[in-house]
Structures are given as C-alpha cells and as structure tokens.
Amino acid sequence: MRWLCDFLNSSIGKKISVGLAGLFLCGFVVPHLLGNLLLFVGMAQFNAYAHFLQANPLTPAAELGLLALFLLHGTVALWARWQNWRARPVGYDTVASKGGRTIGSRTMTYTAFLVLAFLILHVAMFKYGWGSAFHDEELFQRVMDFFRNPWIAGGYALALIGLGLHLSHGFESAFQTLGVNHPKYTPFIKVLGVLFAVAVAGAFAAIPIWACFLGGAK
Amino acid sequence: MSLKLDAGIPDGPVDKKWDKHRFALKLVNPANKRKFDVIVVGTGLAGASAAASLAELGYNVKVFCIQDSPRRAHSIAAQGGINAAKNYPNDGDSVWRLFYDTVKGGDYRAREANVYRLAQVSNAIIDQCVAQGVPFARDYGGALDNRSFGGAQVSRTFFARGQTGQQLLLGAYSALMRQAGKKQVQVFPRREMVELVVVDGAARGIVTRDLTTGRLESHAAHAVLLCTGGYGNAFYLSTNANSCNVGAAWLAYKKGAGFANPCFTQIHPTCIPQSGEHQAKLTLMSESLRNDGRVWVPKKKGDNRAPGQIPEAERDYYLERKYPTFGNLVPRDVASRAAKQMIDEGRGVGRTGLAVYLDFADAIKRQGQAKITEKYGNLFDMYHHLTAEDPYRAPMRIYPAVHYTMGGLWVDYNLMTTIPGLFCLGEANFSDHGANRLGASALMQGLADGYFIIPYTLGGFFASSKLAKVDTSHPAFKEAEQSAAGRTQRLLSIKGKRTPVSFHKELGTLMWNNCGMGRSETGLKEALAKIPAIREEFWKNVVVTGSGAEFNQTLERAARVADYLEFSELLVRDALERRESCGGHFREESQTPEGEAKRDDANFSHATVWEHAGEGKPPIENREKLEFKDVVPSQRSYA
Amino acid sequence: MNAQEKTMDVTLRVWRQKGPDQPGRFVSYAAKGVTPEMSFFEALDTINEGLVAKGEDAIAFDHDCREGICGTCCLTIEGQPHGPDQAATGCQLHMRAYKDGDAITIEPFRARAFPVIKDLVVDRSALDRVMASGGFVSVNTGSAGEANAILVPKDKAEAAMDAAACIGCGACVAACPNASAMLFVSAKVSQFALLPQGGPERDRRVLAMQRQMDLEGFGNCSNEGECEAVCPKEVKLANIARLNREYIRAMFWSHEVHPKVDLEGQEE
User: Are residues C137 and C258 in the same domain?
Assistant: First the structure.
C-alpha cells in the first residue's frame, strides 16, 4: 500500500484528493439546498422533510461520511497551503498579476476559513440548537427564530457569498485537477462553474434574506 | 611547416571510405569502457549528443557548460532546419547530391571524404531525433514534412516550426540528462574551461573555473572533446549568444592544436538591422523567410519614402534580377554581398540606411495570411517584438550579420586535432563546410559528429593508444591551475579606466569594417597594425571590478575579450594570406567582372592550418592540400 | 542616424545581493538617455558599463541569446516575471514600454527551489534534475528505426510541439503564487504523452518527474493560471490537466509505483 501513501503525499495526489472531495461536497450541497428550499413551500412540508432525515437510519452514516470528506478536503488543502507558503521563503517586493488569477482563486484560503467558521456555527445552531431558546421546537420554527435576528441573517448571507467565491474557483479547478480540460468542453465547464457558484450561494442566501428582511419569518 | 597534418583519410572510393574505416577501427571491449574517462566541453548539439552517446556506450563522461544548464547552448537558437538525404519528397535527392551540394556550396574548400560521410549519416540523425520525440513538422498523413532551404533545389530540410535548433538540442539534452540520471554522465554547469592539460604530448584533462564561486577545479581524463562552437563574437556584433567565445579553442591552439581557416566566417543575409550604438547583439531571422519573401531596394538612391509609397516600377528586386535561376534563394554569401553592394550604392533603407527590404506582400496575397503565419508565425512575432513593426503590413528590414564560422581547430578524419587525445566537434572544428556553410547544415554536422562519428573514432583512439595513468595529482594540473589563476590575477590587478566591453566594441568595429563582408589588402594590413595596439592598451588600461573568488561577469567578459584580441589577429592574417575569394571570404582584389567571388584553385586549394610558435612570435603557416576526385571544382554560378 | 532620437531617463530599482547566504536590498540606479529602441537589457548594460568604469561591481544578471529562445534570463520586472509584454522573455522587452521618469523595480525569480547566486542571478538546476529523472525517451544512439515508420497525426504533432516549445526559463515557477513547477513538468510530460515515441515509458516518466519535482521543494499547483499568463512560449494550462491525467493513469491503472527516493541522487 506504499503507493497509496505516495499518492497522498505527492503534490498531484494532494490536489486530486482536495478536488475530488470538493466535488463530492458540491454533490452534497445540491440536495441540501433543494431540501432547504422547502422552507419557501411551507412549514408542514419542511418539517416533514426534517423528520424524514432525522428518522432515517442512514443519516448518521451519511453525516460521518460528510465529516470525513470535510476533514480530507480541509486538512489536505491546508497541508498543501503550508507547503506553498514554504516554497517561497523570500517574497516579492512588487507583485503584479499578468492574468490567470480571479477573486475566487485569490481568496480560496480566506473563504475556506469563512466557510469553516460558518459551518461550525451552522451545525451547532440548527442541528444541536445551540443559542436557541427552546430545544424541542420544530426545525422550521428554529430557522425562523434565528433568522429574525438581522445579525445572524446578514452573517449567513455573507458566509454564503464566501462559499460562492470558493466554488467559483473550486468547481472548475476540480475538473482541471482531474484532467478534464478540452478545448471543446472547458469553456462550458467554466460557465457551469460560475453558474453553479452563483446559484448555490444565491439560493442559500435567499433563505435568511427572505426570512429576515422580506417578512418570511412573520 | 612543422605540424604533421595527416588527415588519415581511408583509401578507396569516397562512398566506401567510412564503412571501411569503421571496420578498420579497433574496438574497446565492453567491459573495459568504464575504465575510460572522457571530458566533453560544451553542451550544444555536438557536445550533448557526443556526451550522451559515449555514456550510453559505457564511458565515464564529465560534461561542462558555461551556461546555467546544458539546455541553453546556442544551438538552441538555430531556426530553419536540418538537412538529410532522405528523399521523402521524391524530388531527386540522394546522399551523393547532398554531398555534391555541400562541397559546391562550400566553394570547394572542404574535405571530400568528410563531407561524404556527413551526407551518409544524415538520414540516421533524422531517425534518431524522431525516436527521441523531436516534434518535427508533419503532413496530414502523419509523415515527416520537408521544405527547401537556402539555395537547395531539393526539399531536404526537416524542421520544427522556426525552432528546429531548439528541438534538436532539447532532444540531445534529454538523452544527456537520461545519462546524468543514471550517473553515467556528471554535468558541470556554470563552468568555464580555463586551461587544457597536456601530459606527454596528449590531452589529459582540463582546468575549469566555477563561475559561481571562482574556484579552479582540475579534471583528468583519457580524452578531451571540445564542442565549444564558433568565434563569431570576435566581431562584437553577431547573432551569437553572449557567452559564445573562442576561449577553449584558443587555449588548445596555444597548447599545440592547429587552427584551420579562421578567415572563413559566414555573414548571414537576413538579420534584423542594428538600431543604435547601444546594441549588444544582432538577431537572426531564419533564411527560410527567403522562400516566400522578396528582397528589394528602391531603384533611386536615397529614396526615403515609406516602402508602401514606392511603386512597383521603382523597386529593384535585385536578387531576382541578378540571379534569375535561384532568385531570392541564392546562398548566404552571395545574398549578403549583394545587399552590401546595394547599400554601398546608397540604396539602403530605413533610418540608418543599413538595411534592405524583405517583402511578404506577394506571398500573403497568393497564399493568405494564415498560411504565412503557419510557416513563419514565430519569426514574424520575433520581428514585431524587436522592432515594433508589423511585418504582415510593411516589409521587414534586414541586414547581413556575422553568424557562423566555418574555420576552427584542424581535425583529422577521426575528428582529432593535432594534439593526440584532443578531439573537436561541431562548429568548433573546420572540417565539413569549406568556405561557406549551406543553410540547415550546421545542425546536421553537430549531430553527425556527436551521435555517429565520435562514438566510433574515440573507441579506435582508446583501443590503439597506450595511455599512462594520469590523475589530477600530476604536476601538470598544478601548473595549469597556477597559470589560470595568474591570468585572472593579472586582469584584476590592472585597474585601468576602460571597460572590457569598450575594448570588445572597438575590436569588433575594426573587424567588421576591415575584415567583414569585403576584405582588401589595405584594410587587412591596417587591421593587422591596429589590433596589437588595442591589445596593448587593453592590458594596460582595462578595468575589471570585483574579485576572482565570486560570481563575476565582468571578469568573464574580460578574459574572453583578451582571447579575441589575440585570436582576431590570426583571423586577419589568414584573410590576408588567402589572396582569393571563396565562399564567405571575399577579397576585393579577386572578383569576376560581374563582382562575384573568384577562386584561385591553382594557389589556394588547401586548408591553411596555423600553428602557435610561442608568445609574441608570428604563427607558422601549414597547409593541408585538398583533393577533389568526385566533385570537379567549377566557378560557382547561381545566375 | 539622421533623425533626432527621442530619449528618456528612468530609474531602475534593482535587487543587489552579494552571495547566496548574504542579505539583499534594493539599490536605485538612474539610466539616462535611454532610447525607445534600446532593449531593457541594453539599458542594464549601459548602467553596468557606467558602474564598471567607476570601479563598482556590475549588476549580475543572467542573459545569453537575447532573442527569447535560450531561457537564460530570469528577471522579475515590476512584479512580473519577464516583464509586461505578452509571450515574450525579458530579453525581448524594449524600453518603448516605458516613459520618461518611470521607476522600475527589478527582482530575481523567487522560489525556494531557485536560490539566489548573486543579485538577479538564480540557480535553476532543480529543473535539470527534474529532466534527468524522466524527461526523455529511452532510446540509445543508433537503435532508432526508420523515421517515417512512426506516423504521428498532424494535430498531435502540433500539440506536442506547442508543449515542447518550453524554454525552461522557470517564469511559471516565479509567477505562481505557490512557486509550483507544474507547467514546466507538464510541458515535457505532455510532449511525450502526445507522441507514440513517448508511449512505452509514459507511466514511469510521470511518476518519476512528479516525485523529483516535489523533492526539489516546489509548491503545489492550485490552478490559478498565472503560469500560463506569464509563459513566454504560451505553454497552455491544458498541459497541466494532461499531466494530472497521466498521473492518475499511472497511479491507478498501471503497475508502476513511484520510484524509490534516491537520497544519494539528491546531493549535487
């Protein structure tokens, strides 16, 4: 199994791990988003969906898997980042991009930490009811309670813009990492990446904005 | 006459000589090869290919280069292509025709046997390079593509866009690095050879200066291969890279190696003209451009209208006019001289008046811009970068510049110099191009020497010589190190007022004016009188800053200029002694009524081989008579 | 000659560093009477001539062919490796890119794998060692078959040539925010992956070159694309994708494993 260690240790292996885990996480984000959008449909439907998940015996396993993916994605990326930082001990006095970098790619590390902080709070608040006045309310109620607070709603929206930036580079980058770069398809993947980032960030952020500022939580 | 100049050409018909010789050469037992150490100086096409091939055979190879990596040798800048007698286009080419064209193109001043061998191995070079993964141009069927090049009437030139030299060099470099990875070759980058060590009359090692630390290092071996390129930088402005120099060859000359035909220098007709006094080097534009570009000047003197304003009827397409058969594709020396004539007549163009036009308007009209881009895109881009002019819209301005040197260390058929154990390959030797090199033949010669000749002849030398054990503890190494250190010290201690570059410029200007495209007895004698004066001032008034124990580019330059100040005197002397015109050597006293070069076969059908007679003494002239049995010399005519 | 030349004065702010282990700093030099036709390096030459004539140490900088093909030059000019021109090396940059009064900062290529030797000169032998680990086709001289026995589709040959155009200057490393050498390595891997000649050892090659690249201390690629933007020979990011593909193929489909680390071999 030396080869597997070698793989994880190699620069390309690391980026493949990060990219692949990232794509799986993108795969998680889509059903999660669709489920959340039930908030707009109605309290009953949303709570039914929440009950279904809570009662499903596969959910803990899925959660563990998700956690593993996050850990893999985050730790390997951080490890690579540390190596990258070491790869240039003396920096430039003047730096001027000649093209290539985007806001998304420049801010990957920052948006990563923003998203991480957000996730910790997100799970603590909605899964474990941290900061909630009650502990036995229906999930719909809990969401609306939290989002009535404009600070929480605003913070959520901000973090989701961070996620969008992260995805704007990450999505397309994962394909490049997996070797999918072809003059016929790459322009399509690039557009898809941006659309995906905008759609995910926008749709997620719509919930707190609607709840707090557009009277959804009334 | 004191040098023994036995070329060792095998008997028999020219087309059987190399086969016969290869069989006659003794072999080194495979198990014994690892007992032989070989030093290769230079990693251009000749050096890299030789080092890789010898290492593959099992010899221990040490390879040295002046650049920071073997991949940067100046072969990398060759653009046009490499010739071979494959006859893929079915247009009548053959080994014999390539041989014939090369001897004729060299104006009958090359050795027939060497040239034939070159033509013979040319095909194997293409096979080898393709196998290495050199991405030659191909047609839609996937087969190799050819083009005609520089005066050839068959399409025998293989090319990789306008970067053939780069791709061939990277092929040889990759073979070299493969051996470096196997530890069969040790690579020493950023090293300059500063002494040749001769023990018991044989070359047994070198002393190098580590250019990053200044440390002198001794290396012993059973044979030394100089693959150190040409001496075009004696003219200061040339298309050669900054680090190209005559140093190694000059050290060998001073240790007893004969230097042949130094006056045979090639002036390339299609370079980007000088733009001002500050210019540090000139840039070549591949002569493949002449396949589609038309050369012209205004008919009227001093016509300084923009090229587009000059109507067709007032243009003089002088190459097409003077040489209707070959037109724009006449050989390099002819094209260069014709340009000089136009400029001397006052019909030069551009801001300085030192240029002629190379016009693609017709080609673009006929073939479309896309086709022209496909063929010459990178050259057009390069021109655009350097001049900020768009050659798709306005004609290029070109001017001749020193480009290649056919002269070099004299070698026998085995590529060995007059010092046993010292071999010389590629542009650094004199053997194959006579007085003028044909386009796309330099790459061919460098690789022929390295891949297919030296692996045989070096084995023959080892197998038939008794070489005593010599290592770097031998007193000769100590002596050599001291002499090198002394020279550095001498340069550093002058602390004068003028920079090494200013001397180089002064020398170069003199050389270009008096020993460039046109050479006359008066001009040459004047140069011969002036060079020692410049040299004397150099040794009194040069300033070299810094120390010898560090990375010091000023010191490197000073040492090279010092070599040129000695060497160029030999070049001029050779030009003076050769009272005929041939190839790149044009003596104004010897021309036909039409102003073409006129050879004097009765008196000059020989290679002049100069021998060092000691410091301050005039060199001794030796001659190797050239015999032409298979290609009968005729007056070259391209009309 | 006859026309009055326009000249300008610029200030060059240059990184000076005596030796590998010495501290460096910026020193400003005035370049007066610079003409637009002058190359950037000729402006540096002019300053150096002045320095040497005054008995001061010239600014050390690497350069050789001065026509954009040898890959020797390695200056970062105003934060951009090789300067502002697209698809050009530093030696092809001309002073017409600047105007009177400009101050221009010049630094060496910066990366741990490229230690500074002096001033603006860096040691890029790491790239040679990567090549020695696998950047070749194992064919001995003399053992090649007839050249036209290997047919290569024109589009493949052209793509291989696009990759092979790499001049090994290291600007990709210098421009990469992570000092990664992926574009360099991918150019060589791609050239051979695209050609039938490279087929037999493609798995071995990619694993070996990848390993050596990592050992040299280059950073990890994060697909930023700065390398592609700065490459003087326009080597494309698609080559990095191909390198990734080759790596995946070698790792998961072939029997090859990473070559064992030869620590001896690491020591120069």
Answer: yes
Instruction: Measure in Å the smallest separation between the Cα of A140 and chain C Cα atoms.
Output: 40
pLDDT at A3: 86
Q: What is the CA radius of gyration of chain C?
A: 21
Residue A185 to chain C, least CA–CA distance (Å) = 12
Cα torsion through B66, B67, B69, B75, rounded to 10 = -100
When scoring A3, A10, A11 by the number of chain C Cβ atoms within 10 A, the one with the most, hence best to mutate, is A11
pTM listed for this prediction? 0.95
State the catalytic residue, choosing from B72, B97, B204, B332. Answer: B332
C-alpha span between C48 and B549 (Å, rounded): 20
- Minimum mean pLDDT among A59-68, A122-131, B135-144, B384-393: which range? A122-131
Q: B and A: touch, per 3+ CB pairs < 8 A? A: no
Kindly provide the ipTM of the predicted complex, given to two decimals.
Answer: 0.95
Q: Where are the domains of chain B?
A: 17-264+408-463, 269-403, 482-577
By Cβ distance, the residue of C229, C248, C251 closest to A100 is C229
Contact at CB, C55 and B382, closer than 8 angstroms: no
Interface test with C, best of B62, B122, B125, B127 (most C CBs within 10 A): B127
Average pLDDT (B52-74) is 98
Residue C2 falls inside a structural domain: no
**Nearest-angstrom CA–CA distance, B72 and B449:** 19
Q: What digits encode the pLDDT tens for the residues C90-106?
A: 999 999 999 999 999 99
The fold of the B17-264+408-463 domain, in CATH, is FAD/NAD(P)-binding domain (3.50.50)
Q: What is the spatial distance between Cα B430 and Cα B260, in angstroms, rounded to a whole number?
A: 6
**CA B608/CA B509 separation, integer angstroms:** 25
Residue B332 catalytic? yes
Give the residues across from B402 on adjacent strands. Answer: B267
Mean pLDDT across A106-131: 90
Last residue within a domain, chosen from C55, C83, C118: C118
CB contact under 8 A, C240 and A176: yes
- Among B residues 241-260, those touching chain C with beta carbons less than 8 Å apart: 241-243
Return the ∠ at Cα B153 (arms to B151 and B156), rounded to 5°. Answer: 95
Q: Chains that contact C by 3+ CB pairs under 8 Å?
A: A, B
C78·A98 Cβ contact <8 A: no
Partner C contacted by B177 (CB < 8 A): yes
Query: Of the given ranges (A145-149, B231-235, B236-240), which has the lowest mean pLDDT?
Result: A145-149
Q: What is B482-577's CATH number, 3.30.230.70, 3.30.565.10, 3.30.750.24, 1.20.58.100? A: 1.20.58.100
| Range(s) of the domain holding residue C143 | 125-266
- How far is it, in rounded angstroms, from Cα B41 to Cα B141? 41
